[in-house]
Amino acid sequence: MKIRFLIAIFILALTYSTNAQSDSLNKKETIGNFTYYEPIFIHHKPNKPNIIYQRFEEISVIALDSVFKGKKYKINEKYNLSLTNEVKNELIPFFNTGKKNKEIIEFTPNIKLVSETTNDHYGLFLLIKTKSSLSIGTAPISKIQLEIIVMDFSLNKVIFHEKSKNLSPSNNGGYAFTLIKNLDYIYKEMRKQ
């Protein structure tokens, strides 16, 4: 009787161990361990002095660099070179394909070169769009939207694409806080993948 009981416990333990290993293998397949790249900025109808947009870009980069140091974002490293304007222009069509449009855009030689400079499997690219305020006495930038794509460098294709809401910095605690709020929204969507 004791032997049967011990055999039953052994089989249960073995089954549990196999399931746990299977779960851990599945978890390793999820998106993570990125190299992230400096954001691309598009200022829609800029009507303020240029210095305002330059400062906004500096604040955004500092905010992203600081939060990406946290473990929850699974960032391995930041690409240490600035992307050229040519590479940025070649990346924008990847953002424009949208979630529902599964059109595959070929990697250009420039993007392939960027992807080959990292040992990571995934690249995280950010597009920050702003809208300028038309009224006097309000924040110069009235809306901020963040868009993220994740590229699988081994497959040479985009495997994740998401846009945040178009949020007002005046109602969401300023430029940096609004950007991070948008980032958190997108990361929640990414975890559902």
Number of helices: 5
Euclidean distance between termini CA atoms = 47 Å
| Whole-number tally of structural domains | 2
Give Rg in angstroms: 22 Å
Characterise this structure:
The chain is built from five helices and six strands, in the order αββαβααβββα. The chain is an alpha/beta fold and 193 residues long. Strands 1, 2, 3, 4, 5 and 6 form a six-stranded mixed sheet that branches. About 9% of the residues have low confidence. The protein folds into two domains: 29 residues; 161 residues, 3-Layer(aba) Sandwich (Rossmann fold). Helices cover 42% and strands 22% of the residues. The chain starts with a helix and ends with a helix. The longest helix is centred in the N-terminal third of the chain and has 27 residues. Strand 5 and strand 6 form a beta hairpin.
Question: Which helices and strands occur, and which strands form pairs?
Answer:
Layout lengths: L1 H27 L5 E3 L3 E5 L5 H18 L7 E4 L6 H12 L12 H7 L6 E11 L8 E12 L4 E7 L11 H17 L2
Parallel strand pairs: 1-3, 1-4, 2-4
Antiparallel strand pairs: 4-5, 5-6
Helix pairs in contact: 2-5
Name the descriptors:
Rossmann fold
Give a concise summary.
It contains five helices and six strands.
